[in-house]
Each structure stands twice: as C-alpha cells, then as structure tokens.
Structure prediction request, 257 residues.
Amino acid sequence: MKQLPAATVRLLSSSQIITSVVSVVKELVENSLDAGATSIDVKLENYGFDKIEVRDNGEGIRATDAPVMAIKYYTSKINSHEDLENLTTYGFRGEALGSICCVAEVSITTRTASDIFSTQYVLDGSGHIISQKPSHLGQGTTVTALRLFKNIPVRKQFYSTAKKCKDEIKKIQDLLISYGILKPDLRIVFIHNKAVIWQKTRVSDHKMALMSVLGTAVMGNMESFQYHCEESQLSMLFPVTLASRSTNSGHSILKHF
Ligand code: ADP
Ligand code: MG
Prediction:
C-alpha cells in the first residue's frame, strides 16, 4: 500500500464521502468487492448508529500494510492518477477508511491466506492503530464502526424521525440488491438488529441473479434481447408491457440504445 503523490491527491480527493449510514456501507462493501470477496455480511444495530459491521472473505490486509490502511491517501489500488485509465476497482482515493475513522470508532480484523491467525486492530480518529490483538476469524476482513456521528450532532439530527431511519435501511437494501445483480456469484446477507432484512445466495449468471432478487413473477414478465456490435454483445431485459407498447417484437426500443 502506498501514499498517493500530492498532485494526485489534489486532483482526486473528495471532501464529502461519509455523510450517511448508507455511505459507510457503500464504501465498506466496495472495499470487500475490490478484495475479491464472494461472501459479504452487513450487520447494523440501531439503524447503524450503534454499530455497522461489514465482514468479507476477501484477500485480507497484510500486517505490513495495517499501519497505513486507514491513513488518508494510502491505497493499494493505484499509484498515481495516470492509473485511472485502467482502473478495475471501485476504490482508488484511499480516503474511505480514514474518513470513517473521523466519524466513528473503527476496528478492523483481518487475515490473509498466508497469516496463521487474524489480527484485530483498533484505530483512532485519524486512522492510526491504538492497539492490536490476535483474533479467531478466518481469511478476509471485518470492519466495525461504532457510535457513528456521535461527534457530529447535526448529522445524527437528520435521522431524528423513524421514517428517515427506515428510508436509510431501504436505501442500503437497494444498494446491496444492485451489487447482488451485478455479481451473481456473490453471497450477501443484510441484518438489522439481529433480523435478516435481505439475503442472496450465489447463483450462476445475471439472469439467475435477477430471478433471485426480483422474483419469478417479475422475471416471467421480462423479454430478453441480444444486441451484437463488433466484438461486444449487449444483453437486455425489458418488461413485456414496455416492449410491446412500441412494437410487438420490441425492436424499436433497441434503436434508442
Ligand atoms: P481505497 O479503497 O480508495 O483504496 P480505502 O480507505 O477504502 O481506500 O481503503 C484503503 C486500503 O485498505 C485499500 O486500498 C485496501 O488496500 C485496504 N482495504 C480496505 N478494506 C479492505 C478489505 N475489506 N479487504 C482488503 N483490503 C482492504
Ligand atoms: Mg475504498
């Protein structure tokens, strides 16, 4: 893991990343996906304000990288902004873990394939390690954020009504559903206050992923189209009613793409 050069930080840094519970979950889940995880557990307590935990079975973080993993502008994903041309990861700014440390009490438990046990690191508000101890978890990484926004009353105030809190849970569910469709071979479980809100098992392809997310009733009303263009192929699914509104075959819809 390396520190990005100052010129790259100036170009890429974003001052607003962690503004909501859903933004914490998004950053942590994307880190799990970048680490090659095929299984992700998202657990919240009290709508995420008491605890947000994201556990994955990805590649883990090496002990030599741990001291800088949550220091802003350290990333293993790019070396400078020129690497953005060939970006294959969600993350690249090296800001998310550091930003979460500013607004919550963060600990990270991680184990790589070559470690013989996992290590739990407790971090301070600027992402430095306060303490570390051996732990019992398998390969992968678990990030825990406690007492989110406890030092920013104005942010917490935004969630003062039950409706706002419930909307946030729905947004997180929608976010996880999107990743579930995008990554058919990903298993995801979303738990709030120990109750399973939503889950998805591993499936073989996008159609099966859509089936498991949208259900057979909705999928039974979809018509699929294949569009070939030079070397690439685009597969599309349309609701039958939308497809048949233009023409019976739905081909006129394709002209819009
Ligand atoms: P970025 O994702 O932009 O690199 P982050 O602050 O989100 O920045 O993460 C910093 C670094 O910590 C990542 O580059 C990665 O090396 C490591 N990391 C974070 N989360 C995980 C994870 N779940 N599994 C493995 N490595 C991780
Ligand atoms: Mg990230």
Summary: The chain has one domain: 6-208. Residues 162-182 form the longest helix (21 residues). Confidence is low (pLDDT under 50) at residues 252-257.
